[in-house]
Amino acid sequence: MQCSVFIATSVDGFIAKADGEIDWLSLAHLEGEDYGYQVFADSTDVLVMGRNSFEKVMSFPQWPYGDKPVVVVSRGLRELPADAPPSVELSREQPQALAAGLQQRGFQRVYLDGGQLIQSFLAAGLIDDMVLTTLPITLGSGIPLFAAATLPDQVSHEQRWQLLSHQIYSNGVLQRCYKKA
Description:
Blueprint: E1 2-10, E2 14-16, H1 37-42, E3 46-50, H2 51-58, E4 70-73, E5 88-91, H3 95-104, E6 109-113, H4 115-123, E7 129-135, E8 143-144, E9 161-168, E10 174-180
Parallel strand pairs: 1-6, 1-7, 3-4, 3-6, 4-5
Antiparallel strand pairs: 2-8, 7-10, 9-10
């Protein structure tokens, strides 16, 4: 099974403002350009996201993932909201156990979303590839994509990545695709 990341950051490495807002992502708008997101999303068969990401997506006017299975990882959330789509389930498992369970269920490629969730899977050595899309903005503070090992059960260790490709778009957006070396 393959665990993959597709995420946007600011130049200074934040995935959201301190209050969780992602309105700055609109800077990336190019008519007819989705930066490869749909091809990526279509290549995954399950989405695993953290609670904060889930709550942000639930605030959108429409659920963007159709009937794709979604696993929300949270230690604090006791149950899903009543309006959660039926394709969503809740997990409190650690990354290794969750990945093993998803593999046993036959999933081939996992889409990981959410800062703390990505950090925990990275610390566990479970991420196989990443698409990092950097927008030409600095936020100064916010929710970092990569942070020192500050979460429970995290161990900081060096990992090597191979740059597979990069692309610079006319609006200054830089996209880099990496795989674990």
